[in-house]
Design goal:
Pfam families: Abhydrolase_3 (PF07859). The protein has 309 residues and is of the alpha/beta class. The chain has nine helices and eight strands. The chain has one domain (4-15, 22-307): Rossmann fold, CATH 3.40.50.1820. An eight-stranded mixed β-sheet has the order 1-2-4-3-5-6-7-8, sandwiched between helices. Helix 4 packs across helix 6. The protein is globular, with a radius of gyration of 18 Å.
Length: 309
């Protein structure tokens, strides 16, 4: 079913330059290099943000983290542990910058291990190591240890949601919030028999979703025994999680799993805000000009300022 007529008109120009492709392992090295170069090029643009960026290698693995801090010295800033998107297949910490300036906070972005080279729980272990390090070094980083939260996009938002569950279950560092943009939460979306007919045509397709989950899990998505820390929608108990924001578009493959997760969080007594944007596909919020993308970015940041800032 063609859903072009459902796309927000302001988002259509970006789709005209998009070439549909089905991901495979052979494509990943070139795709990763391309994405990283684009991220580095964007960092070189003088956007007026007065930020300092420092790299650390932490833990036994070790894990690379990129710490982004406003240049003005101050203690007890909000801390955000950020996870980039990329289907568990590509992406890097270099994709994250502006939030630190907007909220006068410290952003720690994690270079978590990618799949299929590393199956679950590699990315989650990297995230937990970064969270513990961030909490233990809060004073040195200028962070308020009681105001550390998680933020992620797509697959990174799925890692963040799994980390929130793990931190709760391990009695790890307390979390002030989780801020999730179109999170990748449920491997069973791949095998759903009653698939939503208007989702998944653009950017992140059903075929690529299946490849991403297969790469992460090392088994077929929908299999028995998949960990809820890998696919948070499988968690039976969502009580005790921090205040949560979820954003997604109506044409996004993840819209149904995101709505279902928000409903379950509400039933578990978690403070939840969810925004669903009509006519928006996966990744739409990165569009630099479309009004719906601007509103999505502003809504997301306003929630952070209101709930956690």
């Amino acid at each position: 079913m063609s859903t072009w007529h459902l796309v927000d008109p302001a988002l259509r120009p970006a789709l005209q330059s998009w070439t549909p492709s089905t991901l495979n392992a052979e494509m990943l090295p070139a795709l990763r290099e391309q994405r990283q170069q684009a991220a580095l090029d964007a960092m070189r643009v003088d956007d007026g943000l007065a930020l300092s960026m420092t790299e650390y290698f932490i833990g036994a693995q070790p894990v690379r983290v990129r710490v982004i801090t406003p240049n003005t010295p101050r203690a007890n800033r909000m801390g955000i542990l950020h996870f980039h998107g990329g289907g568990h297949l590509f992406g890097s910490p270099e994709q994250s910058r502006p939030t630190a300036a907007r909220h006068d906070c410290v952003v720690v972005s994690v270079d978590y291990r990618l799949s299929p080279e590393t199956h679950f729980p590699g990315s989650l272990d990297d995230g937990y190591a970064a969270l513990v390090w961030m909490a233990e070094h809060a004073e040195a980083l200028g962070i308020d240890r009681a105001n550390i939260g998680l933020m992620g996009d797509s697959a990174g938002a799925g890692v963040a949601a799994g980390l929130a569950l793990l931190a709760r279950d391990r009695n790890g560092p307390p979390l002030a919030f989780q801020n999730l943009m179109f999170p990748m939460l449920d491997d069973r979306t791949v095998t759903a028999r009653d698939a939503n007919p208007v989702t998944g045509e653009f950017i992140w397709t059903r075929e690529n979703n299946a490849f991403g989950w297969r790469a992460l899990l090392g088994c077929e998505p929908g299999s028995d025994g998949v960990s809820p820390y890998a696919a948070p929608a499988r968690a039976e108990n969502l009580a005790g999680l921090p205040p949560t924001w979820i954003g997604v578009g109506t044409l996004d493959l993840f819209v149904d799993e995101n709505i279902a997760y928000a409903q379950r969080l509400i039933r578990a007594g978690v403070r939840v805000e969810m925004n669903v944007w009509p006519g928006a596909y996966h990744g739409f919020s990165s569009d630099p000009q479309a009004d719906v993308a601007l509103r999505a970015r502003e809504t997301r940041q306003a929630w952070l300022a209101r709930v956690a800032g």
